[in-house]
Design goal:
about 160 residues; mainly beta; seven-stranded antiparallel β-sheet; four-stranded antiparallel β-sheet; about 10% helix
């Protein structure tokens, strides 16, 4: 019984290291050909997303809660940038017609709140066009196409990032 209580206390303490914050959205782990993406998946829930909830011109963590992370098992071309194998935080500066996607080597960031003090750890920044659709994606989704593009879609907005492994 004592061991069970110690183990329970360990999990409670280690789970609280999320900088004292609690997750508000479901999270997903997406395994793809060259690695893993871990991200929070908030819902639209009748909110205006881009330009309102997520302000244009500001850094966004792509998702909810902790910054999204992406792992590359091998060196990968991310858009036009060659990225060494490893795990990175993924951010975006969202604009109406394009997004600047940022890979940053500082892991464990909550949201984008500490991004400014860690921006010198940016590994790459690429810009991709926004695609609009009449169909609404209710829950933020990251997926990979057969053409090795990472697609991020939410509400009526999507972006595609070409990857070469």
């Amino acid at each position: 019984m004592k061991n069970i209580l110690l183990l329970l206390a360990f999990f409670i303490v280690t789970d609280s290291f999320g900088q004292g914050r609690q997750r508000k959205s479901p999270h997903d782990t997406l395994t793809y050909a060259n690695g893993i993406v871990i991200y929070g998946r908030p819902y639209k829930s009748d909110r205006e997303i881009f330009g309102a909830l997520i302000k244009y011109g500001q850094v966004w963590r792509i998702g909810a809660d902790e910054a999204t992370t992406i792992t590359f098992k091998t060196d990968t071309k991310f858009g036009s940038e060659l990225i060494p194998a490893g795990t990175y935080s993924l951010f975006a500066v969202v604009n109406e017609n394009d997004w600047s996607l940022i890979l940053n080597s500082q892991l464990g960031q909550w949201g984008a709140f500490s991004y400014e003090k860690n921006k010198e750890k940016d590994i790459a920044k690429i810009t991709v066009p926004v695609k609009k659709s009449d169909a609404i994606v209710e829950q933020l989704t990251i997926r990979f196409s057969e053409e090795n593009e990472m697609i991020i879609e939410w509400d009526t907005t999507s972006v595609s990032i070409p990857l070469v492994f």
